[in-house]
Write a structure and sequence with these properties.
alpha+beta; 13% strand; 230 residues
Length: 230
């Protein structure tokens, strides 16, 4: 469970963006064995350009107005993750439109975790991460982003994990990074990374951010209408 006191210890989106650019954050381990990159400017721009249709905005306000409707969002994220860079600004935009209170918590400690379950000795927010693990094909993952939606009384409604259902990430990213004829292993890695970073600037990533909003809105609607998600 998440208490009001624990929730309050998270960062607002503005605080999180500022934290991303601090020496404290940049000193933490980066992805792909590279130094941590300052994505604070990217996140600000992504938030400013995050688009919600009129229907999405109206649906969000309808959900919030319902008895027992969503009022708070707990997000677990790391800015080195492309999924987090895509979805967290959209989550912040949704929260602003709906009037939800949003708090962001980091998943990792000084190093990027690779274990199935969080380690309290290494991860300061292990107590939260442990509540939202992804289980797939008999394996457990500390997937991010996590967006857990709660009522005003901190009753859990729904949790969004990692990416929208229409984004078949393993297939898409696997094809982008796949070695090409004549490439060495090192050349394929470097070219694959360049191509994937370039791909993140295409309309497809913006489309999937909007798809995440649709998925979240739909699932919250089902939760309130039916009373459960299963």
């Amino acid at each position: 469970m998440v208490t009001p006191e624990r929730f309050a210890k998270g960062m607002t989106f503005q605080q999180y963006v500022a934290f991303v650019g601090t020496p404290e954050n940049l000193a933490r381990e980066g992805s792909f064995n590279r130094p941590r990159k300052d994505y604070s400017g990217f996140l600000r721009k992504a938030y400013e350009s995050a688009h919600l249709s009129e229907a999405q905005q109206e649906a969000l306000k309808w959900l919030t107005a319902q008895p027992g409707g969503p009022a708070r969002v707990l997000v677990i994220a790391e800015e080195w993750s492309s999924d987090c860079r895509r979805d967290v600004p959209m989550l912040a935009r949704m929260a602003d439109v709906a009037g939800w209170e949003l708090r962001i918590f980091t998943r990792d400690g000084s190093r990027i975790t690779s274990t199935p379950a969080p380690d309290p000795r290494e991860q300061p927010n292990a107590d939260l991460v442990a509540q939202f693990l992804r289980k797939h094909d008999g394996q457990t993952f500390q997937s991010i982003p996590v967006a857990a939606f709660y009522t005003k009384r901190f009753e859990h409604l729904y949790t969004y994990l990692e990416f929208p259902a229409i984004y078949h990430k393993d297939r898409v990213v696997g094809a982008i990074r796949a070695p090409r004829p004549g490439e060495s292993k090192e050349e394929a890695l470097e070219r694959g990374l360049r191509d994937f970073f370039a791909f993140q600037e295409t309309p497809f990533f913006r489309m999937w951010a909007e798809a995440a909003a649709d998925e979240i809105i739909s699932m919250l609607h089902e939760r309130l209408r039916v009373g459960s998600l299963a």
